Amino acid sequence: MARSVRAPEPGVPLVSPSRFLVAAGLLLAFAAGLLAVQKAAGLDGGEAALYLAPVQAPLARITASWDQWLGDLRDFQNRADRNRVLEAENTRLRQENERLAGLEKENQRLGALLKLQDKSHPESLAARVAARDPNLWNAQVILDRGSQDGVTRDSVVVVPEGLVGRVIRVGPRSCQVRLLADPRTAVPAVLAGSGALGILYGHDGRTCTMKFIEHDVPIREGELVLTSGLGEVYPPGIPLGRVTRRLGRTEALFQSIQVRPEVEFGALRQALVLGRSRKG
Domain 120-277: which CATH class? Predict the structure, then answer.
């Protein structure tokens, strides 16, 4: 079977640069030898041209091919340089777009927080998350507001989506907040649709469990759960989360449900710290 020979790609030299150099060197050496012979034999220019004619055409072809190869090499290098510049510019533009998108999202969060403050909690303090414990990422945060700003123990912390948690420790310029999903959290709650009361407990840092709901209350997936206002800590009507499923009975007269918090605790950056005089 005859072997197929692949045609060279357009613009690609048929021989390598090293072979060009070897061939050109041999032809130049041959031409130099002929010139030496011409000088030794006393030949004039016309007679010498007869001897040099066989090598002039190959030398001209090699020189032209070599020039073409050098031109292709320079063109390739220029294109590679332009590509590097364009890639660097694309990377810079992509990073700038990501930065601007992050700033826009941050501005939207701040705008929603300020709107909530103006509309519902004019006496509240805007605060930023100052620190987090990696081992308690969805359980506790440190805010940059403290006793010098008027923060007290059991101050309630909220965002536009709903309840964040409550202050458990206060320093002069910072406070520690226990988040809603912390297993040690317990909040008096009410089902917005049926009005059934219960207690919402943090579970695993991501979900909560509402217990002590009367056994005959119908449970609807997606139903909103709010603070009931019972007790002395949490004001009424703050969103807590939405029902995801019924868990069954925990006591003879009660049932429990799983609740997904409305607040994304892992992405928390700002919040409002409410005053303690909630009934005023």
Answer: mainly beta
